[in-house]
Amino acid sequence: MIDLLFALTIILFFYGNTAFIFQNAINPSDASAINEVKKMTLSETISNIIIFLFIGAFVFSFASFARGRNPNRVFGINKMSWGKILIWGLGAMVPVYIFLGLGSFIIRLIIPSKEKVPEMQEIVQTMISSHDITVLIALLFSAIIVAPIVEEIIFRGYIYPVLKKYSHRLFAGFMTSLLFAVVHGNVAGLIPLLLLAIILTLSYELTGSILVPVLIHALFNGINSFFILNLPNG
Q1: Predicted local confidence at residue 117, as pLDDT
Q2: Is residue 192 predicted with pLDDT exceeding 60?
């Protein structure tokens, strides 16, 4: 019951924070900020990384040490060899991008090209517009290393197993994946991120090792970061 209450607290916090972000995007207090390109500074990036790592460490500790559990058993850290984890990660890129294309196609049907496309995440805008190498390195470290580890610990490693314990695994998997998609705060990416999260959840369900979705997530972010930095306009 303690796990369930803690998981629900995390879910409510994420949904509340996302609702606040969307509300500000719809009704910005400064009209001149509507079309302004948002760029993150190095200090903001480092602060976000530290906060994110703290949250991830707290959830990891609560799910294991604070509850008297072995973290290797809770998260399946030693359940698979690195070779098998690598095979799973690389193999998952095929369905990931197939479903990504499907999700993008559905979004284009829902949001016609003539409509205003919701703005990109601030981290993406910074990658596209920033020429500060230190900021880019910090952003890449956050996107490829920190975000996959922390997000997978929170969503697949903790929220999904807790919800599955008190409901059906399909419901738990969908709700966890929907939460993952929503908290990224991008309407145009909602369905693609939902489908990505379903694959991440399924990989964790099938392997029992949190390292598999972490690697898939890291590869996905790494490949997308490469495209953002090397293609015109990201």
Answers
A1: 47
A2: yes
